[in-house]
């Protein structure tokens, strides 16, 4: 088992509360690091490592658990102001690992059965720098000052609450090589031609270290299914362009049934350059963007319990697959 080095102190660990209590602690990077190390220390059957570094040098963390051939990959917080997706995923991880250890249930399934049949991997904080910016955890200085300068060119986007991008102003979920040029044309026509709080596609596909690292890790993992957690809309997007991987509609319908969310095709103006889009295109396997909750991001923690009640069966059903 690989742990992060250096590991946080016990006082830092005590600040991270992503277990079955709610609302959870805010998912700034230090608290997520502490929680990931706590999970790896408590559950000997999980593996903690990193798949890359953010712009600011923060490790991009993942945990895998399971001994089965079916591989499912869950990610959260591609977008900075959608940070509630991180504690949702961390709470699921806590509940799942506890269920494996204590022969419990998770989302209507035996946790141990899922463990024996699947390998589940979790990247709960894809955009740590951006999330820290939105949560006001970045001190004034070069990175903060540059982000504020970028934001000043977009006065209609509140700072920092409207920030979705990485710390350099690249929208990580518009970075993947799946109709990227189409996304660029659409976003340039909308005025996002340079680094911005949201909707700037970057200088080329996978230019941002966070999206490039996630794509590289996904290639190594070669999952059967991916779930990307976002906010908001209570909707599951399942298709990309004309690609319809085998079994993707059937699994999508089950995800919708257990969560109460609508299963929908991504609107054409948004159906480009996303992580789910690239995965469907390159792997010909089911990929889903799950837009959780309702309202304007960042969603309030008052929605946490309701969102989680929908997500636990959805995430477990995705693990189980067919």
Keyword list:
8-stranded mixed sheet; globular; two-stranded antiparallel ribbon; 16% strand; alpha/beta; 322 residues; Aminopeptidase
Structural commentary:
The chain has one domain (10-130, 208-320): Aminopeptidase, CATH 3.40.630.10. Mean pLDDT is 93; it is low at 1-23. The chain is globular. The protein is α/β, with parallel strands linked by helices and 322 residues long. Strand 1 and strand 2 (59-66) form a beta hairpin. It is 38% helix and 16% strand.
CATH C-level class is Alpha Beta
**What name does CATH use for the topology?**
Aminopeptidase
Radius of gyration: 18 Å
Low-confidence stretches: 1-23
Query: What's the N-to-C terminus distance?
Result: 30 Å
Q: What would the average pLDDT be, to the nearest integer?
A: 93
Oligomer status: single chain
CATH architecture: 3-Layer(aba) Sandwich
Helix and strand pattern: HHEEEHEEHEHHHHEEHEHEH
Counting structural domains, the number is 1
The count of strands amounts to 10
CATH superfamily: Zn peptidases
Q: Give, in spatial order, the strands making up the sheet with the most strands.
A: 1-2-6-3-7-10-8-9
Q: How much strand?
A: 15-25%
Helix segment tally: 11
Structural class estimated from helices and strands: alpha/beta
């Amino acid at each position: 088992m690989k742990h992060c080095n250096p590991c946080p102190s016990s006082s830092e660990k005590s600040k991270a509360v992503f277990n079955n209590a709610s609302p959870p602690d805010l998912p700034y990077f230090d608290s997520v690091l502490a929680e990931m190390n706590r999970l790896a220390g408590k559950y000997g059957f999980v593996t903690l490592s990193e798949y890359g570094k953010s712009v600011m040098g923060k490790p991009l963390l993942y945990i895998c658990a399971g001994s089965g051939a079916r591989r499912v990959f869950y990610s959260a917080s591609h977008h900075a102001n959608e940070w509630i997706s991180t504690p949702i995923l961390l709470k699921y991880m806590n509940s799942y690992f506890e269920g494996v250890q204590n022969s419990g249930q998770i989302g209507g399934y035996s946790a141990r059965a899922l463990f024996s049949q699947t390998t589940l991997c979790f990247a709960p904080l894809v955009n740590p720098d951006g999330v820290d910016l939105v949560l006001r955890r970045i001190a004034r200085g070069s990175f903060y000052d540059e982000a504020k300068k970028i934001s000043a060119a977009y006065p209609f986007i509140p700072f920092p609450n409207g920030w979705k991008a990485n710390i350099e102003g690249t929208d990580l979920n518009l970075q993947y090589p799946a109709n990227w040029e189409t996304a660029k044309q659409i976003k340039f026509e909308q005025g996002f031609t340079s680094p911005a709080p949201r909707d700037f596609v970057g200088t080329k596909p996978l230019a941002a270290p966070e999206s490039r690292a996630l794509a590289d890790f996904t290639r190594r993992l070669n999952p059967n299914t991916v779930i990307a957690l976002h906010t908001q809309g209570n909707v599951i997007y399942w298709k990309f362009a004309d690609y319809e991987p085998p079994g993707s509609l059937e699994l999508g319908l089950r995800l919708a049934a257990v969560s109460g969310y609508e299963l929908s095709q991504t609107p054409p103006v948004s159906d480009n350059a996303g992580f789910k889009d690239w995965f469907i295109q390159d792997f010909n396997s089911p990929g889903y963007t799950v837009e959780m909750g309702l309202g304007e991001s960042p969603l309030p923690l008052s929605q946490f319990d309701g969102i989680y009640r929908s997500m636990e069966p959805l995430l477990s059903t995705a693990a189980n697959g067919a």
